[in-house]
């Protein structure tokens, strides 16, 4: 097993544990765990030698970064907000951000596609530090 496959396997485990601890009240946190867990699962398969998992891993990783990280940011920064607690809002949020990300990728706007996960990560770190 490669180091990449092992790190993705550890991420899958962390997502499963976080999912179980957040169920059923934290919709955005749960959706972020599902998106990241799916991407990491395909990563385990890809880095484990399954060549067919390359495309699913790329797509699910893009969605996890562009929709999952902002959902995680919403769950951490504003845990009582509509986006963090209501399933329809989470689904709309994920579909819109995922669509924007795919659209940016198709149009060749790499900087736009990469900015959303970066902003989400910064918000998660800021909200985590603010809460301490």
Your description of this structure?
- With 132 residues, the protein is an all-alpha fold.
- 83% of the residues lie in helices and 0% in strands.
- It has six helices and no strands.
- It has helices at 3-22, 27-47, 54-77, 82-85, 87-106, 110-130.
- The longest helix has 24 residues, at 54-77.
- It is globular and about 40 Å long.
- It starts with a helix and ends with a helix.
Give me a quick take on this structure.
The chain is about 85% helix and about 0% strand. The protein has 6 helices and no strands.
Defining traits:
6 helices; 132 residues; 83% helix; mainly alpha; single chain
Q: State the helical fraction.
A: over 70%
* Mean pLDDT level: 86
Number of strands: 0
Low-confidence stretches: none
Question: What is the approximate shape?
Answer: globular
Major pleated sheet: none
Q: What is the H/E order?
A: HHHHHH
- Quickly count the helices: 6
Q: What's the Cα radius of gyration?
A: 15 Å
Strand content: under 5%
Secondary-structure content class:
mainly alpha
Distance between the termini: 37 Å
């Amino acid at each position: 097993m490669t180091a990449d496959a092992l790190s993705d396997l550890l991420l899958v485990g962390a997502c499963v544990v976080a999912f179980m601890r957040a169920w059923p009240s934290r919709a955005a946190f749960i959706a972020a765990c599902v998106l990241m867990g799916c991407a990491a699962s395909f990563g385990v398969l890809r880095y484990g030698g399954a060549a067919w998992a390359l495309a699913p891993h790329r797509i699910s990783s893009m969605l996890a970064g562009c929709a999952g990280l902002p959902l995680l940011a919403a769950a951490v920064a504003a845990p009582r907000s509509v986006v963090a607690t209501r399933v329809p809002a989470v689904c709309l949020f994920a579909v819109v951000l995922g669509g924007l990300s795919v659209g940016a990728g198709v149009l060749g706007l790499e900087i736009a596609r990469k900015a959303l996960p970066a902003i989400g990560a910064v918000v998660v770190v800021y909200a985590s530090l603010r809460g301490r």
